[in-house]
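Sat 14:20. Reprocessing the chain from the morning session after the first attempt stalled halfway. Input below, unchanged.
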Amino acid sequence: MRAMRRHFNAQFKAEIVQQVLREEKTIAEIASEHEIHPNQIKRWKATVVNGLPSLFSDETTAAKTAQAGHEKQLDELYAEIGRLSTQLAWLKKIWHQPSAELSAWRWSNERTRNCRWRRSAIC
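Finished this time. Tokens:
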């Protein structure tokens, strides 16, 4: 029967990696003390070492850049909403108030009588 897989929280992993980085004990000694495979400790250490440069990067500029991009996109969307609202209002106004000339032209008998294609949209 297989043993249950153990799960370690971030705090425990950080403590183990700190011990490895202090170099007071070897990885094998630390692994045997905590009953962890040495390869697992090496993977945790590699993760920490690879993530160190991001700790010293200027996160505020990245956050500001992302925020500026978000605000620009938001402004564009609000402008589009404004344009569409204006178009909708204009179409509603025209739709409900047709001109008398247009109505007469649409339904005139002369136009339909003289048309060769009575059922087509051309007439």
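Residues 8-52 form one domain.
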